[in-house]
Design a protein that fits this description.
heterotrimer, A mainly alpha (454), B mainly alpha (116), C mainly alpha (491), A: mainly alpha, 18 helices, B: 116 residues, Methane Monooxygenase Hydroxylase, Chain G, domain 1, 5 helices
């Protein structure tokens, strides 16, 4: 509750900040301070101290899973602010509005990760989607950005429609919006149909195949800073909602959807990885890589165990940190193609070293958080009884090495003059801190996952 | 409630959308003339081509009007129960109106209400 | 404590090397670190016998059923010793090679060493996997960063190949983890497993594939010659002297005792592949003109013999493998140094362009000839001991019906080895001088010293192999006890 109210109020404050404060710097500092306050408030709640006592009539439940993910999302957003807030301001004139939209997204994330009622799920998903439509199109003069925004909006509304239909059908079958249904021996068809519709619409939101077609275009067209946020925090939030929905609402009819989710996971892994191999632009590669990582996160939903929960949180953190880091560098690059990175290591040895850590983490090489999060997923999948899916997943992870290492090759082993601008010392240290966290979580994941229990 | 109802629902939805188009096609006399192709504006003949650009301000006004108009609707159910609920209702509607006011203030400050 | 130091010293030394910008200093630092590691390793082998010194265990990732546990037993001792001895030799012998950004080069070398030590010491499957990759990743950077013309695609192939196989191994280890009653990755729990025959079969392949690629066993060897050819010599030395032993080690430690029945039932297949590999690699080696590729293929043949012996399951054979792992490492190191010397002096590795070196460089000639003898495993060289033990091991094997056939085919490799090695010797050392070799100078300094050290080891262990045999004797008995299939079937 703390984080929800803090981020919503922060959003409103940010809306007015451009009238009250007269320069960009103070607006930016204000955004940082507000987000920090939100993080602190959330930590308080995680430690059992809630500032607000509002009766949500059981529609929201702030359990440890939700709170911990909210913390991860907020911290990742904070990292995003530290690294990219200046680039965010460069998109257009309404610099303070971008911050406020991000805060509203965070509020949506809190709702969608702690819902106990399907209505809240819908509300949360919409609260986090609508600002995204705007942010995607925020580069007003750029046709690609407009196209991406419209595409995203149309497809998003369509999937929202599916979701509503699904919720309606489930209401028809069970007579309640509250999650945690119990079903008799025979599962009603309406419930199954509703479940399928929800599965499709959630798959759309997290860009799991075969509902992923919007992803590359939208990620490519949106301003790069926005893509960085969309592909990480928002996607992870989608998975948390997905996980919660399927664990709590459909946990009791697991045999009905297990195979389907397994297939979606496998297809997502396959399409994401194979298509990413052929990309020439790093930005598009990262878009497809986000699809392939989504495939791995789908494994958590497939297996629904405690391992999967811990793993999903860890995955969200590992993936978000690494991707935000890479995007932060990418934004400052002149050329977004792989060739644009040629000779990067010679000019920026420090940044290149950090990027290597992030790429290794995404590829799932040990001693990085990325490995352990994949490991958790595999463990949960094998525990869930599907060795074949686990084997398929690791083979696809081996494919992913191809495109992640291609960037390493460009940076280190090829000659060229990669041009990067605007790297301050603070920027470098922030990135180094993210890389440090990535490695730290790769050695001691319990630092994060223990919060689920203690 | 079983599969039958679901299928019936799907069919009804299909019928409803497809039926409209079909009926239109069926009863369409097929008369096509110049007057029919003209843009219609309050019964007054158009002066210029309807395809020229017009001010985005129209949309902004329309949107803002819609938002505040729709939100006003919430005041009616409130008015019905206000006596029963008492002071709480008053406070809550004040909060509601305050939020609306903030939105209005924001729109005003952003210059959305400035013509041209 | 000693086991921890074995791993920590190169790790920390490696990380510090990143920050030493001066070329000379970083070389000295790397050499110093590797010498300290060598001293620790010798201490571990000779003085320290208390369990407190040879075991280390600390809690780590407890919730995943893993712990940070290292152990130095007979098998680890001999391989750690090999790693520890090789590094100073490699560093001294390549002292004159110049590298751009030398600090990164030596840092990655030392990190690889840390990974290798970890692999040989870990008694926890997850930890083992960590180290396995820790050894691989720096090696990838070494080969891609400082190698030859085609280094980027070649090392990439190497990396993808090994990585793919290793993630399959991860799945195998994970599956075993779920079979253990206490949900643990520890070696003891794995050894206590009693799996059904079918399960063993495919767990065997999941695990064995990773090791087969690493060794490499035919037909998984295609990455190897290219990578050896394109890598910088120091990296090639690490790859061929130590890293291929990771595969052999993995089979001994993680495959044979864990899935003994599958090892028994698939033994014939693996032995056939190995023997095919021996013959195939030897024949290709005969046709090579590039000296580096010749040695690469000869290495495949030697390793093939080891992998065949692994599945013969006899005591004498295992003794041979243990000894030969060490000896092969030393010998091939010597050969690479020779190649490096030749390439550095003449700017080519093509055997057809060389000739008549012996007259002007007698010291090089003598050392080269002795190492060539060792490569053919003539008596009085160390390789003879190892290979002889392995041949008798395969011959006396009771787990396969084709032991005689395998032995005969494997012995062919010695003849073929004689053909290609002596051809190379002849082409390089004797015959008419070519335009390239006119101004030949003899070797001196570090390389000479290193080569003499190696040659002395070749001869000493060729005459008196007991120290090596003694290290691994106890371990081999334990191993045989665990994998004795007859004994398993009786139960």
């Amino acid at each position: 509750m703390n984080a929800l109210i803090f981020s919503a109020v922060s959003g409103v404050i940010m809306m007015f900040s451009s009238f009250l404060l007269n320069n960009k710097n103070s607006v930016r500092v204000l955004a940082h301070v507000l987000l920090l306050a939100t993080i602190i408030a959330n930590i308080f709640e995680l430690r059992g101290i809630s500032f607000f006592h509002i009766d949500t009539r059981g529609m929201l439940e702030f359990d440890r899973f939700a709170l911990l993910f909210t913390l991860v999302a907020n911290v990742c957003t904070f990292a995003f602010f530290l690294l990219s807030s200046r680039d965010l301001e460069k998109i257009g004139n309404h610099y303070s509005d971008y911050f406020s939209l991000l805060f509203f997204i965070l509020a949506g994330i809190v709702v969608s990760s702690s819902f106990k009622s399907l209505l809240m799920l819908f509300l949360g998903i919409e609260i986090l989607s609508i600002p995204l439509y705007i942010l995607t199109g925020s580069d007003k003069r750029n046709l690609k950005s407009n196209e991406a925004s419209l595409k995203y909006f149309l497809m998003g509304s369509f999937s929202t429609g599916l979701m509503l239909m699904g919720i309606a059908l489930i209401y028809g079958a069970t007579g309640t919006f509250q999650t945690g249904i119990t079903v008799a021996e025979k599962v009603p068809v309406l419930l199954i149909t509703g479940m399928m519709l929800l599965l499709f619409s959630m798959s759309f939101k997290v860009s799991a195949a075969p509902f992923h077609f919007w992803t590359p275009d939208v990620y490519d067209g949106a301003p790069t800073v926005v893509t960085s946020f969309m592909a990480t925090v928002v996607k992870a939030a989608g998975f948390i909602a997905f996980m919660r929905l399927f664990a709590e609402e459909f946990g009791s009819i697991r045999p009905e959807w297990k195979l389907l989710v397994g297939i979606v996971a496998a297809v997502t892994l396959f399409i994401g990885n194979i298509t990413a191999v052929f990309q020439q632009s790093v930005k598009r590669m990262l878009a497809y890589s986000s699809i392939s990582q989504a495939g791995f996160m789908m494994l958590a939903i497939y297996s629904l165990s405690n391992d999967a929960k811990e793993g999903l949180i860890l995955y969200a953190a590992a993936y978000s940190l690494a991707t935000i880091g890479i995007f932060a560098v990418l934004v400052r690059m002149k050329d977004y193609t792989f060739e644009g990175f040629n000779g990067f290591a010679k000019q920026q040895p420090f940044l290149a070293g950090i990027l290597v850590v992030f790429l290794l983490s995404l590829a799932g090489i040990p001693l990085t958080a990325g490995f352990l999060s994949k490991f958790y997923m595999l463990k949960a999948t094998i525990d869930g009884g599907s060795l074949a899916l686990a084997i398929f997943a690791v083979l696809m992870a081996a494919v992913s090495v191809y495109y992640y290492f291609r960037l390493i090759q460009s940076m280190y082993f090829k000659t060229g003059n990669a041009t990067i601008s605007g790297t301050t010392t603070g920027f470098k240290y922030t990135l180094a801190a993210l890389a440090g966290i990535t490695i730290l979580l790769g050695i001691f994941p319990n630092l994060l996952t223990n919060w689920l229990y203690f | 409630m079983g599969p039958i109802s679901l299928i019936a629902l799907t069919l009804a939805a299909l019928l409803f959308s497809a039926g409209g188009i079909l009926v239109g096609k069926l009863f369409n006399k097929g008369s096509k003339n110049l007057q029919k192709g003209e843009a219609y504006e309050c019964g007054i003949p158009t002066k210029t081509s309807p395809w020229h650009q017009f001010n985005v301000g129209y949309y902004l006004f329309a949107l803002l009007f819609l938002i505040f108009d729709v939100e006003l609707v919430f005041l009616y159910p409130w008015a019905v129960v206000v006596k029963k609920v008492g002071v709480t209702a008053l406070v809550e509607i004040m909060v509601f109106i305050f939020i609306l006011f903030m939105g209005f203030l924001y729109a005003h400050k952003k210059g959305a209400l400035k013509w041209m | 404590m000693i086991v921890l130091l074995l791993f920590l010293v190169p790790l920390i030394g490696g990380f510090l090397s990143f920050f030493i910008k001066n070329d000379k200093t970083v070389r000295t630092w790397a050499l110093l670190t590797s010498v300290i590691t060598l001293l620790i390793s010798i201490a571990g082998n000779t003085f320290a016998h208390s369990p407190g010194q040879l075991h280390f265990s600390s809690s780590w990732l407890g919730s995943l059923g893993s712990s940070f546990s290292l152990q130095l037993d007979g098998l680890s001792q001999i391989l750690c010793l090999l790693t520890a001895i090789s590094y100073p030799l490699i560093l001294v012998s390549t002292w004159r090679s110049s590298y751009k950004t030398a600090n990164n080069f030596f840092a990655l070398m030392l990190l690889t060493q840390a990974g290798l030590m970890g692999v040989f010491l870990a008694t926890d499957a997850l930890l083992f996997y960590f180290f396995w990759e820790l050894a691989l990743v720096p090696m990838y950077f070494l080969c891609s960063g400082w190698g030859g013309e085609r280094r980027i695609p070649v090392t990439f192939k190497f990396f993808i190949y090994t990585f793919t196989a290793s993630v399959l191994m991860l799945i195998g280890l994970l599956y075993l983890y779920f079979q253990t009653p206490d949900r643990s990755f520890s070696l003891q729990s794995f050894y206590a497993l009693k799996l059904s025959n079918d399960t063993q079969s495919w767990v065997f392949w999941l695990l064995f594939l990773a090791f087969a690629v690493k060794m490499p066993v035919f037909p998984f060897h295609t990455w190897q010659p290219d990578t050896y050819e394109q890598s910088p010599t120091a990296a090639t030395m690490v790859l061929s002297a130590i890293m291929v032993k990771m595969g052999v080690y993995g089979v001994i430690r993680w495959v044979l005792p864990v899935v003994p029945i599958a090892a028994y039932s698939w033994g014939d297949v693996v032995m056939s592949l190995s023997v095919i590999g021996i013959i195939y690699a030897s024949i290709i080696a005969i046709q090579q003109d590039d000296f580096k590729r010749l040695i690469a293929y000869s290495s495949i043949a030697h390793i093939g013999l080891m992998s065949a012996t692994l599945f013969a399951e006899t005591k004498i054979g295992y003794q041979g493998v243990m000894v030969q792992m060490f000896n092969h490492g030393i010998n091939i190191l010597g050969l690479w140094i020779i190649v490096e010397l030749i390439e550095r002096q003449f700017g080519t590795r093509k055997l057809s362009q060389l000739g008549g070196v012996a007259q002007k460089a007698p010291a090089l000639a003598i050392l080269f000839v002795i190492l060539a003898f060792a490569n053919i495993s003539l008596p009085l060289t160390n390789a003879f001991i190892g290979e002889f033990l392995m041949f008798s091991g395969i011959w006396s094997s009771t787990v396969t019906h084709y032991n005689i056939l395998f032995t005969v085919l494997a012995i062919l490799s010695i003849i073929l080895a004689a053909v290609y090695t002596l051809t190379a010797v002849q082409k390089v050392l004797y015959g008419p001088e070519s335009s390239i070799t006119e101004g030949t100078k003899d070797i001196h300094g570090n390389e000479k010293m290193v080569l003499w050290v190696i040659v002395i080891m070749v001869v000493v262990f060729g005459v008196y192999p007991q120290p090596l045999l003694r290290i691994t004797d106890g371990f081999v008995d334990l191993l045989l006890n665990k994998i004795n299939v007859a004994h398993l079937f009786v139960k």
